[in-house]
Amino acid sequence: MKMPTVKYQKGDTVMGRWPGSSLYYQVKVLGFDSKSQLYTVIYKDGTELELKEQDIKSVTGFQTRSRSRSRSRSPGRRRSRSRSPARTTRRSSSRTAAAVAATAITESTPSSRRDTRLKDTVEVRLSPVKSEAKVEAESEKNQGPYNLRRRKADGDAKPAEAKPDQPEKKAKEAAAPSTIPSAPLDFGGKIGAYFWLLFLPAWVLFVILQGNLTDPSLFNAPPPLPPLDTFWDAQALCFVILWILFQALLYILPVGKLSEGMPLRSGVRLKYRTNGFFAIMVSAIVVAVALHQGADLTYIHSHFLQLATATFIISVLLSIYLYVRSRYAASEELALGGNSGNVVYDFFKGRELNPRIKNFDLKFFCEMRPGLIGWCLINFAMALAEMKKHNLDAPSYAMILVNLFQLLYVVDGLWNEEAILTTMDLMHDGFGFMLAFGDLVWVPFTYTLQAYYLVLHPNALSLPAVIAIVTLKLIGFYIFRKSNSEKNAFRRNPSNPKLSHLKTIPTATGKSLLVSGWWGVVRHPNYLGDLIMALAWSLPCGFSHLLPWYYMIYFIILLVHRDSRDMSECRRKYGSAWDEYCRTVRYRIIPRVY
Ligand SMILES: NC(=O)C1=CN([C@@H]2O[C@H](COP(=O)(O)OP(=O)(O)OC[C@H]3O[C@@H](n4cnc5c(N)ncnc54)[C@H](OP(=O)(O)O)[C@@H]3O)[C@@H](O)[C@H]2O)C=CC1
Ligand SMILES: CC(C)=CCC[C@@H](C)[C@H]1CC=C2C3=C(CC[C@@]21C)[C@@]1(C)CC[C@H](O)C(C)(C)[C@@H]1CC3
């Protein structure tokens, strides 16, 4: 890359500010983009970022200034700190960040040294160096508005020497400002996006039609398509619209907590109305009243296809709206990934991270309300349909188990709604067709397949089988809830005294990684619990057909793929600290197996 006359030159070693913090690390300049006026720099752990000139300082000036400041304040303290090992067992993210920052500033960190440092941190915990880092780092205020951008992510960060310059690609990126920030294409890239756009709706149609057959094996040839007019029912569309509006109304009511999301790249923390539990309670009351007034909920079973079609149309319209509005969004509002410049891929993956109409967060609402609560409503309707079809006074054991298990899952998700704010979808994924369709169509019309299946295919369960399945569900739920709560509590308050017994690995971002407790058993204990629950949802349906096992199979694929997406994202974010975590916690989801 040819460097124009700029302050820092390619190859210079300088101090670069870390995004979202006022901490500086030693970095190497890789290049300068005159169009965007950004320097590409590489950190010692291999992370590459683009920084503005104001976020870069020269090494000499920085060290002289900070040293003289810290010396004049407390020379003795600095000496004693460097001699004595850590004694404290409390963690704090600022302290963690400080420890890393101080090391980054005052010593060079070859990988062997760095590994030792991390190991010490795991075993001995951290030195109390918070004040030192404060002295070393410049005040956030002095830096002007926070304005750092992550550089184009290209999987694992590589050393500067190993990375060939790509002038054409750079020029293209500079010419298309809305493609910033970008990330490696997921889901099979551009071709994959075409495939998923066609396959996902076709699959929903296939399983719905399959569920109506007497032999609904997934291996059966697809049933013949019903005439086109059977897909459409204006009344079904009205019901779906009413349901979504009703949920939207409950969401905007000033009832319940206003929770803060995780800090965005801009440093801003959005607020979310987390009143999901209230919403499902009110919905249950309204459904009970409607039943009492003679409403026939078995309509949902008899018009399953038409309701799915109506919801699909809404999800497509919503995705078009999301795509169009994202074209006007500022680059800081776009998600990493989903900004490839390819219309179809971006439409599928979603571009805008948190599309909002005033305070109404579209992604949060769609993920947590109409589809999720709709899932329980549909399951309940299937239980009524089963009773009607087989002239029963009560639903079968299998139907009761499926209903209760999935209701528990949804109610738990809504009760702990705040925890969704630390999940991948909310923090990293753009909102486009994938999530709009996933939330509104996929969840309510395929996660209900076990109940849908049981209406026409009853499966008698013995009492020991019921007990065994309930036990399995409770074990899965325990692992799922405990591990999710542990991570959520830690991310929200890393110095939470209740978590002080846990070991952590500091990372260069200032955030730490849990390395004991649930997150020390496997890298995704929450997925393990979720998978065990999925097994308990399918078992009540027996083994005669594959259809009720569809969720289990899909879920394994989804979670394995999510785990690998998360792995690349975390490696990019945390560099060597993530590798250290992976060395310490060797298995991804199932201990000693995977
Ligand atoms: N029923 C369904 O269809 C689905 C259910 N789920 C469930 O939703 C829940 C959320 O899943 P998902 O969003 O995929 O993933 P996670 O909730 O596991 O979030 C992953 C993030 O957690 C943080 N993290 C990872 N390891 C550690 C660690 N050791 N210490 C601290 N933080 C860590 C990282 O974010 P950072 O460091 O940036 O905070 C990482 O990006 C899961 O329980 C999953 O089973 C998910 C998908 C579908
Ligand atoms: C194939 C396809 C269309 C994929 C879209 C994936 C989505 C269906 C899922 C992505 C993450 C999800 C989560 C839940 C539902 C499914 C989707 C939207 C979730 C809300 C279910 C309830 C849980 O308690 C949960 C809150 C942990 C969970 C969060 C992730």
From TrEMBL:
Record domain Tudor: where: 6-64
UniProt keyword Protease present:
no
Q: What class of enzyme is it?
A: oxidoreductase
Q: Which reactions fall under this protein's catalytic activity?
A: 5alpha-cholest-8,14-dien-3beta-ol + NADPH + H(+) = 5alpha-cholest-8-en-3beta-ol + NADP(+); 4,4-dimethyl-8,14-cholestadien-3beta-ol + NADPH + H(+) = 4,4-dimethyl-5alpha-cholest-8-en-3beta-ol + NADP(+); 4,4-dimethyl-5alpha-cholesta-8,24-dien-3beta-ol + NADP(+) = 4,4-dimethyl-5alpha-cholesta-8,14,24-trien-3beta-ol + NADPH + H(+)
Q: In which pathway does it act?
A: Steroid biosynthesis; cholesterol biosynthesis
Instruction: Return the EC number.
Output: 1.3.1.70
The entry assigns this protein to a family as follows: Belongs to the ERG4/ERG24 family.
Name the record gives this protein: Delta(14)-sterol reductase LBR
